[in-house]
Amino acid sequence: xxxxxxxxxxxxxxxxxxxxxxxxxxxxxxxxxxxxxxxxxxxxxxxxxxxxxxxxxxxxxxxxxxxxxxxxxxxxxxxxxxxxxxxxxxxxxxxxxxxxxxxxxxxxxxxxxxxxxxxxxxxxxxxxxxxxxxx
Length: 135
Hints:
By secondary structure, the chain is mostly helical. The protein is elongated. The chain has helices at 9-30, 34-60, 77-95, 97-134. It contains 4 helices and no strands.
């Protein structure tokens, strides 16, 4: 069976990228103290290191065969992005319209991703049902 969903390390890398953007904005606009800058930098570094580790682990995993059962995915890229977008929208009331615009765009991308995943899941289930009927 072919893989219906992508790699989970991309979500971690996107989270690290978002943390990096927030770190740059905080450093450039608000001039926080040294502890805050260092803590955010460590968070960015740890997240990117985790993404690199997940990428290496994903490359070592063999491709699934056609005989393997269908895996049910409960957490996907789009649901993670949806959570980040909702948090961004909530925080935008405090930080301003720039975060609302960014979060609104992420929200639209997440909704499009959920629609794509729903269609891919239905197509995958149809494919499995057709294989079972042939067998």
